[in-house]
Design brief:
One of its GO terms (molecular function) is phosphorelay sensor kinase activity. This is histidine kinase. Helix content is about 55%, strand content about 20%. By secondary structure, the protein is of the alpha+beta class. The chain has three domains: about 150 residues; about 110 residues, Helix Hairpins; about 160 residues, Heat Shock Protein 90 (2-Layer Sandwich), CATH 3.30.565. Helix 1 runs antiparallel to helix 4. The two termini are about 25 Å apart.
Length: about 450
Amino acid sequence: MQPINRTRIPKPRIVGLVVLVGLWVMFAVWQRAEHVHQCRLIHATLSSQGDALSTAVSNSIQSHRWFSPFVRQQLPSTLETLARSTNVLAIAVVANGNVEQSYVAGDERLIAYELPVGEHVVENTLQRVREFQMQNDPPMPGGLSVAMERRGTESFRSVVVLDRTETMSQFYLEARSRILIFVLGTLLLASIGAVWQFTVRLAQSEGKTRLLTAETRHLRELGQAAAGLAHETRNPLGLIRGWTQRLVDAGLPEPDQQEQAEAVIEECDRVTARINQFLAFARQSELQIEAIPMEDLVAELKTLLQSDLDAKDLDLETVGLEVQAIQADRDQLRQVLFNLLQNAIAFAPEHSKIRLSMRSSHSGTFRIEVADQGPGASEQIVDTLFEPYVTRRPGGTGLGLSIVRRIAGAHDWDVGYRPGDGDGSVFWIDGIRGASTVSNGNPMASVNR
């Protein structure tokens, strides 16, 4: 199976993310356009009111034949009536461009006479300015000459001032509504995206699970086949070694033949030892958990390895083994410590010290460390120390540390390597539970791993 590149985002996720971002942008643009449209409608309502009032003012004046004293007298009351309409702050009519001849209803201070014709927003007001004319057609009394003198065109300007406070409130409510809709829409899109991503990941996880299950089954079958082959290989090896040993014991006619026969026996023993190591690595044995005094177990191992220690004049120092008993499978823990100590002996320089220590760890469990004063592991192989058939020891098989990791995993322990404080190597096992810890929790007689 190819390794998974965790830094690369899968293509379906990129496409889905682009689609969601595109939908989100389209939704935001749509809500923005709707907000602008609604604001225009709200403004148009107020603008229509101003236009209607200015039309009413012009019609009230243009409905007369001429701008007579009677019209001038009635104009203020007409403006007062119009000024009582909703949102109206002031109304003014200026005759012939002379502000002094203006007629005003409402708050005159709000009126901006200098504005051009059209619609203008001044602070919180909307001012509608309109110009119109009326054709004077006075009656005939006083003579034709007098009537002709009064004929002509008069120009007027009307200014309607409307309050925009209510309109601004409607703008605010509209903006708040659009923001709420946008937020809810964003949450909905995010939820849809999350559900889609979860569905994609679930499908990918199911595919990976099926692939890993098939690969695990294949590796298990391959391991069983290899273990069976190794087991069957020991039988002919034993037969070869037995017959060769009989020849050696009987004596061969030539010294060269005797030496070659002894070499065959030595190679058979070596291959058998390698097969036994492989079977120890591949075998999934049942754990027999019990309380183990570390002092007694290490004393047995020291006796077993004493000849190797004496060969290099090494001193095995133990620290903290008297703390308390631990919970483990005795034979497998013995195998772990044997492999680690044998590895330390192989790399420790002559006349040096090997230290086996046990202490409490931060999690309330125990930690065992085996330290030597050898050269240490190079950075190139640190990450592969516990992989099968990776070795830095001449003549080694590369299965010793792999067996350590497999046994540690079966016990739910952590195993690792770190450089020594000054020099050398330190192999550690962490997560070892004490006898009292396990007995008070969930005691186990045996665990089938």
